[in-house]
Structures are given as C-alpha cells and as structure tokens.
Design brief:
The complex is a heterodimer of chains A (189) and B (382). Chain A is mainly α. In chain A, 72% of the residues lie in helices and 2% in strands. Chain A has nine helices and one strand. Chain A is globular. The relative contact order of chain A is 0.10. The chains are: A mainly alpha (189), B mainly alpha (382).
C-alpha cells in the first residue's frame, strides 16, 4: 500500500513535468517494460530502441495521464509499450523471423529448480518457441498477465477488451501453451 | 467442426473457473503460484500444471548485464531529452480536463442568436475591408520582394558563416572559454543523434579524444588541477566506450573500426604521458600514465589488443630529428618549445613504409601509429 501511495505521488509530480519523479518511475518500471518488449521482439537491439521510444513517449505525453481514466499507471505505460511493439512489427513484418528470434534470446529463468508437484523444467527456448504457436492476442495475454503480472482489468485496458474476455482468453492461452510445450517435450524425448 | 460433448464443455468451464479463482486469489493475497498449484493438484492435474508453468514464467528475467546496459543508455538519453526541454513548456499545455471546462464555459456564456447574426455581419464587413487593404499591400510588396529576397539570402549566408565560425572556434575551446559550452552541447547532440553501437562508439571515442586533448593543453598551460579533472572525464568516457564495445561484441557486431579507434586513443594518451615525463611534468605524467594503464587493462579485459608504445624512439626534447618505430610520417618542421598538446591523431593506422621521418625542432607532430610497427627506426634518427 505504501508503495502504491509513493507511486501515485510520483506520478502526480511527473505529470507536472518533474524530472526527478519521472526518472524514479523510469527506474521502477524499466525492467518490466524492457522484459515485455524483449520477449515480444526477440532481440536486444530492437528491444532497446523500442523501450527508449516508449519512455520518450511517456515523458512527452504524461500530462495526459489521468488516474480516473486509467486503471493504473502500469497499465498506461504498458499500453504505450504494446502500441510501440505493434508499430515495430508493422514496420518490420517482413524482416522478423520468429525462428531466428528464439535462438537469439539471451534470457534465463531464475530459480529454475524442479517443481515438487510437477516435474517440469521451463527453458526460455521452450517458452519462446511455444509462444509462436499462440495467436497474437493469446501471446499478449500470456506476457502481460502471466509474465508481467498485470491484473485482468489492466490487461483489458491495454488490449481494448473487457475484463471477462481477458479471463476467458487467459485460460485458453495457458492451456494451449502447456499443450504445445508438452507435445514438443514428448517429441524431443 | 465437431460438436462438443456437454460433459466436456462443463469440465472446461469448471477448469477455467478453478484456474481463474486460484490465480486471482494468488494475486490478491500475494500467494506463491506454486502453492496455488499444489491446491489445484487435488482437483485437477491440468490446472495444477498450468499454475506451475505460470510460476516459472513469473521468474523469467532478462540477462542482468544486458538490462543494465540498456537501462543506463536509455536513461542517459531520457535525461538529455528532459534537460533539452524548456521547463514548463509542456506544463503550459492544458490537459484534456481544462480543455473540456473551457468548452463548457464557452457554451454557457454564448450570446443569443440575433446578436450572433449582427456580429457575423460586422465580421463580414470587417473582412472585406481587410481584403482591400491586403490587395494594396501586396502590390507594394511585389516591388520590394525581389530586393528583400536578395537581402535575406545575404543575411542567411552571413549567419551561416558566423555559426560555422563559432563552431570551429568552439572546437578548440577550453573549459575556461565561453565557447566551451557550445563545444559540449555539440558533443551532446552528436551523442544523442548516434544510433547503434558503432556510431555511438565513434562519437564517444571522439569525445574521449576531446577531453584528452584539453587535458594536455591545460597541462601545457601549467593548469594541473584542470588537466587532472579533464583526464578524469576522459576516464569516464573511455570506460563507457569499452562497455559499449563489449556490448557490441556480445551481439556479434563488427567492432573493428571501434577497436582501432580505441587503440589510437590509448596510443595518444601514452604519447602524452611520455612527453609530459620528458618535459619534467612528473605529476601530470604520473596521472596520465596511470590512466593509460587503466585504459589498457580495460582493453585487455574486453579482448582488444593493445598497440605497442608509440613513443619508443621518439625524441621528446624538442630537437627531434626523427620519430621512431612507426608507419607514420611526422612532419614537425616548426620551431619553439615542444608541448604536450597532441596534434589530431588518425583513428586508423596510417599506411607507410615502415620508416618514421621527422625533421624539425620543437613540436611533436608525429601521427601516432596504432599497430605494431613493421620496422623500427633508431631513436633520434630517421
């Protein structure tokens, strides 16, 4: 709760063009925004360019942020990131090769120990290739809802969907993902 | 499409609800997803497995070094962006709510319809008068336009020349000079406009060279504290340059131009250190040598080869009849006291025949070789 209050105060100051406040918000959100974009785009160079575009855009437009209109500052920022990724894909549609991006990911799972209940070892390669088999919307839900931990309402705001639709989609997305990963694992065994 | 069995549909719905409730409860009460997976295991193995998969996904993290590098770089650009913006420029722009309120006020205070019609007539008359005046003015302006265009062109040319002059003068400015701010602003702009590791690396190398040259000039003028401060700024720029090179290497980018630039810079620094030592500027020489040593250590750590000491065979006493071991040709024909200030250094090894030449007293005008020499001239002779 204290963290939320602090964030709310920072956001208010940032909307009044306070450099320090915005810099602190940048430090707070950089990891999550970068990880989301990195997983969507698949390579560090594009991810860095797009992340910088997101934060530049956030600084330019933060005066338009309204806590009454948005579900949270995180949702607002992730919507900018989502739009930036969509723009990036539009401009690079013919260049991006998803097979190649899977190989280039330098992402690792921390605490990769085996689960007590389910003996599953998630590797980033598995995840990135499995994500390719999902629809664009399912992939977005998986990353925003599960990797970034946003609420269903926040994800709905970002994607322009109802909260209920996100809840329905999230289950189908994770099920598809699990099935694909199981199939791949069985094939490789 | 195959019709789905009612029982299956019900099962799917139940599983969806179970998954959603466990996930929501986990978020609300900050419960570990693994715990929720254990709870689900009794009811449904599939849901349990889904939740366990989520636990892994939440733990995914990008590589630390990569993230920190991107954070630093974007943070710096963001800082420059924020500083470049005049304070209050955006704040002056009304937010949407203000715009709405203003619109509402206009609507509430709008005059009655007949007043509006009268006002419209007045406005039309006034517009007709304005149009007539404009036609007369255009006739007069037509005559003057030709001359004015010539005058404006001449003024623009003069302004461009003045700006170019300021920029050229700023390139040589020292921190005490009022033009130094222009020089630093140009550097910042250059860095901001550089996209991609290679371009940014070249810009950083240029900036590092500026600091090095300024430090040497300050030492020449016996302003040692200023020289030390500039050298410290050189160290910072160099460290950043090495980090950037390592990042580019990690991404398998072509860093050959960058590494040869780095080698040339370090060779320059070594040369300045040796010259300072020869001139008896022991204090400054120690600082430069230590900085050069640190630079070489960083280079080695980044897997960049260190070029040989370019001063081997140099005569730093000012009566130089020859420059030693290089591929470069020194043409120091000037006279006077030799100084520390380096002449512009090439960023690539100059091509030559392996013999260093240099006739003259005074300034050390030799380009610094950046690669291991192929032939060695005896010290002091050509």
């Amino acid at each position: 709760m204290i963290i939320e209050e602090q964030e709310s105060a920072l956001v208010t100051r940032a909307t009044q063009r306070d450099h320090d406040a915005f810099t602190r918000l940048y430090q707070m959100y950089f990891d999550r925004i970068y990880r989301y974009i990195r997983l969507r785009l698949g390579n560090a160079v594009d991810a860095e360019d797009t992340t910088s575009a997101v934060f530049f855009n956030a600084w330019r437009t933060i005066h338009s942020f309204s806590p009454q209109r948005e579900s949270s500052f995180a949702a607002w920022l992730f919507r900018l990131a989502h739009n930036a990724v969509v723009d990036r894909f539009r401009s690079m549609r013919d260049i991006i090769s998803l097979d190649a991006t899977g190989e280039r990911l330098a992402i690792r799972a921390i605490h990769p120990g085996p689960e007590a209940q389910i003996e599953r070892k998630l590797t980033i390669h598995e995840l990135s290739t499995a994500l390719e088999s999902l629809t664009e919307e399912q992939r977005e839900v998986v990353l925003l809802r599960f990797v970034e931990g946003l609420s269903a309402r926040e994800v709905g705001d970002i994607m322009g969907k109802q909260e209920g639709a996100v809840r329905g989609m999230q289950f189908r997305a994770i099920e598809s993902l699990r099935r694909v990963m199981t199939q791949r694992r069985d094939t490789s065994d | 499409m195959e019709p789905q069995e009612p029982q299956d549909a019900l099962d799917d719905l139940r599983r969806e609800r179970l998954f959603d409730s466990l996930l929501s409860a986990g978020d609300r009460w900050r419960l570990a997803l693994n715990t929720q997976a254990e709870r689900a295991a009794d009811a449904d193995a599939g849901v349990a497995e889904d939740l366990a998969l989520l636990a892994h996904m939440r733990a995914l993290q990008t590589g630390h070094e990569e993230t920190e590098f991107a954070r630093a770089r974007i943070g710096r650009q963001l800082d420059e962006l924020m500083r470049a913006e005049p304070l209050g420029a955006e704040a002056a722009r009304p937010p949407d709510a203000h715009e709405w309120r203003r619109g509402r006020m206009r609507a509430l205070t709008a005059p009655p319809a007949d007043e509006v019609a009268a006002a419209r007539q007045r406005a039309e008359r006034s517009e007709a008068e304005r149009q007539a005046r404009r036609t007369r003015r255009q006739a007069i302006m037509g005559i003057l336009t030709g001359r004015a265009a010539t005058l404006v062109g001449a003024l623009l040319l003069l302004a461009c020349c003045a700006l170019a002059g300021v920029s050229a003068a700023a390139a040589r400015a020292l921190p005490e000079s009022p033009l130094y701010a222009v020089k630093r602003a140009e550097e910042t702009t250059l860095l901001t406009m550089s996209w991609g590791d290679s371009s940014r690396g070249q810009s950083l190398n240029l900036i590092a060279n500026h600091r090095l040259g300024e430090a040497a000039t300050e030492a020449d003028l016996h302003r040692l504290p200023e020289a030390r401060s500039l050298l410290s700024q050189f160290d910072s720029a160099f460290t950043e340059l090495i980090a950037l090179t390592r990042h580019a290497q990690a991404l398998h980018e072509d860093t050959s131009a960058l590494t040869s630039g780095i080698q040339a810079t370090v060779a320059s620094e070594q040369s300045i250190g040796a010259t300072a030592n020869a001139l008896g500027e022991a204090s400054f020489a120690t600082v430069v040598t230590s900085s050069a040593q640190s630079a070489m250590t960083q280079m080695q750590a980044a897997g960049i080869g260190v070029s040989a000491n370019p001063n081997q065979g140099h005569d730093h006493q000012g009566n130089g009849n020859g420059h030693g071991n290089g591929n470069g040709h020194g043409n120091g024909n000037g006279s006077g006291t030799p100084g520390l200030t380096p002449t512009p250094k090439p960023t690539h090894a100059p091509h030559g025949n392996g013999k260093g030449k240099g006739n003259g007293n005074g300034q050390d005008g030799s380009p610094t070789p950046t690669t291991t020499p192929t032939a060695t001239a005896p010290p002091g002779g050509s």
